[in-house]
Amino acid sequence: MSFFVAIVVVIALVYIFLANSYSCTHIDFYGCSALNILITGRKIWIWAPVSNFDQLKSLFPVDSSLNVFQIVEKNKVEMLKHQISWCIQEPGQAIYLPPLYGHLVINLEFSISLGMSFIFKNQVDFSLSWVREHVSSSKNPKKMLIAMNRQLDIGQLFSSRFLSQNSSHTASEISSISKGYSHTVQQTKKKVLSDDE
Q: How far apart (Å, rounded) are the C-alpha atoms in residues 13 and 155?
């Protein structure tokens, strides 16, 4: 019961992938936790904690999907040293990744899966700082906000009403979080306007 109480928001989507399609090595938006339930097909999952994300990216670059088994075989010791794990997901199996885990997924066959992203109560402040950092460092903050909103309604996530109903933050903390988000959005709008001129 306490697990579900700890969740701020859950987003669930059905994903359909062609054989040999893949996601590059990444960390999910907002540092979300993720749950993937495979309905049909087979997938390879490779993951590591954020502290070893650079090693994960260097071992599994964008073009690694075709020879992933060779990379795993050749780098077993290096993977163990950097807490890089892997598995083949079969139909009916679920994969859970904790917050801030880097990962890549390769679809060995045509696959259909149910994917869910979680943001826990104790992640709200981190999620806000993640949004600030990625928006402020983006060359195109408007595009970045649109991409973020495809993953999760960030306006809802940081609204006072939503936080008061779904988190354990105090009223003053909620006010501070919501103001922080509003400030981020205002700064982004100013940057977008100045870039358009």
A: 19
